[in-house]
Amino acid sequence: MALFGNVVCILAGVYAGIYLDQNYNTRDAIPDPNIITAVLKACRHQNDFPLALRFLETVQLKCGPHKKVVWPWLVQQIKPTLDDLGVPTPEEIGYDKPELYLEDVMDM
């Protein structure tokens, strides 16, 4: 949490999108669930649903090769906040597959 320690204080008074666009995408670390919760609440405070969803997608991408282990744990930790704010996970709305996803012919 040392890397993202100031995020909660910044998000309390500053628009979340500005901070995320300028600072978050330059770091490789996966944020703590408390930080994810604070960002989601700030997005909800600003009624910026697309930013909340894009942030969740970015966190999912930052899990990298450990996605199968880390992402379910993160979702388990932030699920009460997601339910409270009404924000779905990327999988719940079908963002885990490309829009024009077709089943591979060789798998049929």
UniProtKB/TrEMBL annotation:
Q: Which InterPro entries does this one have?
A: Cyt_c_oxidase_su5A/6, Cyt_c_oxidase_su5A/6_sf
Query: Which GO molecular-function terms appear in the entry?
Result: metal ion binding
User: Iron: is it a keyword of this entry?
Assistant: yes
Q: How does it sit in the membrane?
A: Peripheral membrane protein
Where would you find the membrane-spanning parts of this chain? Answer: none
Q: Does the keyword Transferase apply?
A: no
The superkingdom of the source organism is Eukaryota
Could you tell me the keywords of this UniProt record? Heme, Iron, Membrane, Metal-binding, Mitochondrion, Mitochondrion inner membrane, Signal, Transit peptide
What Pfam families is this protein classified in?
Answer: COX5A (PF02284)
Q: Where in the cell is it found?
A: Mitochondrion inner membrane
What pathway, per the record?
A: Energy metabolism; oxidative phosphorylation
- Major localization class: mitochondrion
What is said about its interaction partners and assembly? Component of the cytochrome c oxidase (complex IV, CIV), a multisubunit enzyme composed of a catalytic core of 3 subunits and several supernumerary subunits. The complex exists as a monomer or a dimer and forms supercomplexes (SCs) in the inner mitochondrial membrane with ubiquinol-cytochrome c oxidoreductase (cytochrome b-c1 complex, complex III, CIII).
Q: According to its UniProt entry, what is the function of this protein?
A: Component of the cytochrome c oxidase, the last enzyme in the mitochondrial electron transport chain which drives oxidative phosphorylation. The respiratory chain contains 3 multisubunit complexes succinate dehydrogenase (complex II, CII), ubiquinol-cytochrome c oxidoreductase (cytochrome b-c1 complex, complex III, CIII) and cytochrome c oxidase (complex IV, CIV), that cooperate to transfer electrons derived from NADH and succinate to molecular oxygen, creating an electrochemical gradient over the inner membrane that drives transmembrane transport and the ATP synthase.
Q: What is this protein called?
A: Cytochrome c oxidase subunit 5A, mitochondrial
What is the scientific name of the source organism? Bugula neritina
Q: Which taxonomic lineage does the organism of this UniProt entry have?
A: Eukaryota, Metazoa, Spiralia, Lophotrochozoa, Bryozoa
